[in-house]
Design goal:
Helix content: 40-55%
Number of strands: 10
Strand order of the largest sheet: 6-5-4-3-9-8-7
Order of helices and strands: EHHHHEEEEEHEEEHHHHHHE
Number of helices: 11
Mean pLDDT: 79
Shape: elongated
Structural class: alpha+beta
Strand content: 15-25%
Length: 320
């Protein structure tokens, strides 16, 4: 006897399956379209429900329907089937439960306690007097919202559009919104880079100007100033970073920004050692904190190549 022939597995689109189910296709029609046996179709329903793409009520209804109206097996045994279905990211875990309602305290913009309703696919906000109401879909969260974190200040959720408003967040709300936003995206990286480098071109030019040599005036006792290579290097490097942030944004720029502030701190320390006022130490502390914040953002915004813009990863699920 010859060896049994095993047909290769096929992959089905979970998105198309859910769309067909929502459109009202019967089990018989689904089995015929996707060439599934009754057992395979039931297994697919279970997998979709487990992934949160098919609610329990619909699953029970379809299971009961499948038992009362058995699906005839195809004339030939279909090949084993894989369902390629997007893995629900962490922020969609909220959608499996009822939407959460809570209050957000606005520290800027339209101040007061806003009413918020958070679900897996949207965030609804309403101002204290009811004059402003906005609903933001999860797909457009990076365009209209920003999570702002700092080591010295409390975290904020910033509403960018239509009116900029900052809401204070406690640790619990910060954790929930991080889940809702999902993994870091390129759009979120640009949000962080833009304010950090918005004034760097002007500051870089200023460093270059102050690095140029100046003639002295012996009659009034002014000594000539030589060319300052350190200031010139700091100015040129800052200009390069600012241009890269504008035209070629990259997470590595945050690391280079931290290095730049560390070099500036070292230069400031050398000046203090050579006789400058010790009050410059206050500025040195601010520079060190700025470098630390850049390192935190560099670590926080680690992008995963397997994650798309909304953090969804395809994962095969095979019916049993």
């Amino acid at each position: 006897m010859g060896e049994p022939v095993t047909e290769p597995k096929r992959k089905l689109s979970a998105k198309q399956l859910v769309a067909d189910i929502s459109a009202g296709m019967t089990d018989r029609e689904l089995a015929r379209k996707y060439e599934l046996t009754s057992h395979q179709l039931e297994s697919v329903f279970q997998k979709l429900a487990k992934a949160g793409l098919l609610d329990g009520t619909r699953l029970d209804d379809r299971s009961a329907s499948a038992k009362s109206r058995p699906v005839p097996a195809p004339s030939t045994l279909p090949p084993q089937t894989d369902v390629v279905q997007p893995k629900a990211p962490a922020h969609l875990a909220i959608s499996s439960a009822a939407a959460e309602s809570f209050l957000l305290n606005a520290a800027s913009g339209i101040k007061g306690e806003w009413r918020a309703c958070l679900s897996g696919d949207s965030l609804k906000l309403e101002s204290p007097d009811g004059s402003h109401s906005v609903e933001i879909q999860a797909a457009e969260a990076d365009e209209k919202l920003q999570l702002w974190e700092s080591s010295l200040f409390p975290p904020f959720l910033v509403l960018l559009k239509p009116k900029r408003t900052a809401f204070k967040l406690d640790p619990d709300l910060l954790s929930r919104f991080k889940e809702w936003f999902g993994p870091p995206t390129a759009a979120r990286l640009r949000q962080v880079l833009k304010p950090r480098f918005s004034f760097c071109i002007a500051i870089g030019i200023l460093y270059l100007v102050t690095s140029m040599p100046l003639p002295g005036d012996s009659q009034v006792g002014i000594d000539p100033l030589p060319f300052d290579p350190v200031s010139a290097f700091l100015g040129v490097s800052l200009l390069v970073l600012a241009l890269l942030a504008k035209f070629r944004p990259s997470r590595t720029l945050l690391l280079l920004d931290a290095v730049w502030f560390l070099l500036l701190t070292v230069n400031l320390g050398i000046g203090i050692y050579q006789g400058n006022s010790p009050w410059w130490l206050i500025l040195g502390a601010v520079l060190l904190w700025t470098a630390y914040e850049a390192l935190r953002d560099y670590q926080r915004l680690k992008l995963d190549d397997s994650v798309s813009a909304r953090g969804k990863v395809a994962k095969p699920i095979a019916p049993q």
